[in-house]
Amino acid sequence: MLSDVDPEIAALIQAESARQSSKLRMIASENDVSAAVLEATGSVLTNKYSEGYPGKRYYEGQQVIDQVEQLAVDRARALFGVDHANVQPLSGAPANLAVYLAFLSPGDTVMGMSLPMGGHLTHGWSVSATGRWFHAVQYDVRKDTGVVDLDEVRSLALAERPKVIFCGGTAIPRTIDFPGFASIAAEVGAVLVADIAHIAGLVAGGAHPSPVGHAPVITTTTHKTLRGPRGAMILTDAEHAKAVDRAVFPGLQGGPHNHTTAAIAVALHEAAQPEFREYAHTVVANAKALAVALLERGFDLVSGGTDNHLVLIDLTSKAIGGKPAARALDQAGIELNYNAVPFDPRKPFDPSGIRLGTPAITTRGLRPDQMPLVAEWIDRAIAAAGNAPALDRIAAEVSDLLTSL
Ligand SMILES: *Cc1c(COP(=O)(O)O)cnc(C)c1O
Q1: Percent of the chain at pLDDT above 90?
Q2: Among 123, 221, 253, which is best to mutate for testing ligand 1, by the most ligand atoms less than 8 A from CB?
């Protein structure tokens, strides 16, 4: 037993479990995995080395591991409707790095959404290896709409001729226009990569349009809306499969994390059930209901609302920064992150916004009719920043609701 061998870590895991269950977990990239996913993650598969791919390994004893990985691959192909799936990337950032290795050489031009506008570090942001080793050009959102303008993306692509274009990001509250990006990529001869890390579960559940058929290469984490273990996948058409496989192994990684692969297979099985479709649609319904309730309370939302699982609040009009607001909310039992908003006049470490997501609270069982209450708590907590007794009272109400579910 862990508690006998290492009581310190056992107690900390217990404490984290209690912390998670007593709070509204609204970090948009997080979720709450099933007991089945946890069990697979904590299995003896972690003991096995298996460099290579099913049927082509460099170590013996792959009789079982080959079947595990093949199941994960087959389930990913079936769920998303793609020709090929690589389930070995260790996480989302390494998956994206594998894409660079597959289709670019250092110094080549890559195009992605800039980080402060909602893109990801690995889409060419300056501090990332992807921005340092490649010529990265970045597109923004429009100031008046808070949404990407594909005419601007097209002009930039025609001027810069990127070899790879990334679409998708970490703080995009609106539907991504995959066909629109695909026609720009076709016009300039770029490989379109759809990074659906945040929305993979919504895509799988039919609550966001699929990039399949538009983006020949799709990267995703497995632990966000998809509700699996921490990991990633690269989904491709037949043409781009070999280059991606070679880039992941031997290009970038050694042995795959087989316990994670098994847990990804479990999560993909769960995501193929009818209940998961309902889950994905409820995630979106919750986010939309939350957005409406926040707007009614005078909050300013980037792009005016949401189409997916996340809401980005610009707190400028509330005269509080994102960081003190996030801290107050955490004390009030609502866990989220401070976030830059487009054209943020404040510094990245002390930005103007907060980002909220509904994936974990939907898993927990919250429904759209409870979102006005959540918005009320958020409003009260922000107004009560610095007032510990008031924040504690909200935390008690949050905990009461969660215990009643
Ligand atoms: C989360 C995320 C990643 C990175 O995933 P990690 O598992 O944290 O490395 C990459 N791209 C996007 C769009 C993401 O949201």
Answers
A1: 99
A2: 221
